[in-house]
Specification:
Blueprint: H1 2-39, H2 43-56, H3 59-73, H4 77-92, H5 96-109, H6 116-130, H7 139-154, H8 161-188, H9 192-205, H10 212-228, H11 232-252, H12 259-298
Amino acid sequence: MFSLQITHRRFNFAAMKKISLFLLILVALSSCKFQRILKNDDWRFRYKAALAYYEKGDYNHAGILLEELIPIIKGSPEGEKAQFYFAYCNYQQGQYLMSSHYFKTFFDTYNRSQFAEEAFYMHAYSQYADSPPIYLDQASTSTAIDAFQEFLNRFPQSKYAVQSNNLIKELRVKLETKAFNTAKLYHKLQRYQAAIIALENFQKDFPDSYMQEEAAFLRVASQFEMAEKSYEHKKKERYEKSVAFYQNFIDRYPESRFLKEAETMFAKSQDEFKKREAVEKQKAEEKEKTAKIVNTQQN
């Protein structure tokens, strides 16, 4: 039994070795064939080979040939198609920033082409494909939105119009979520001033967001926590702002799920503000009383 297992393993190893050797030969032959095509002086031959590679889904070899051909045949019908396919070669290989650039270059060069509308759409779509996860910087997401908007301005009746509008909505939700998460993180990290500014910007930039209610509550909470942790000379003013933020919040969301927490912070803010206002009033009265005594003594 043991000897059979050894024989079986040896057979598998030998078979794998033959398969690997066969694959290496295929790769070598393919490479030699491609080099012969690349060195051929007839650009039409190379152009046909590039299209054949493209149709087979070999975007790497197609892209290499097309990139080399574009400056040679620019301005011709073949040059137009070569530049369009070259942009797609970059897109299909996941080189989205490059494909966005080349689709835009194609549109700028051949804006009367039958492919012009599709090229401009793919310029925007490549930006969309390059948009990173929410936890990363969203500059390219904003760029994608601008590109889709420009596409819709140029081609309002396009067959891609509905999809473009849907993708703009998707990208805006991404920016909305990023902005809210950033503001919430500032609050969690106790960077209350930054949180308040970020929350106010969020409320202005995304007025229809379903997260508006929580943003308004976090604004109250950030202001309250900042007042609690402030130096004494800043507390009165900050508690007063906390009261104002609460009043704005309760006007907009009288039945909020955050109401109980907000009311607790409001009550504490109001009490602390009134205490300090009373102390300041008492000090002012004492100061005025002292001043009167001094004046009387002087007279």
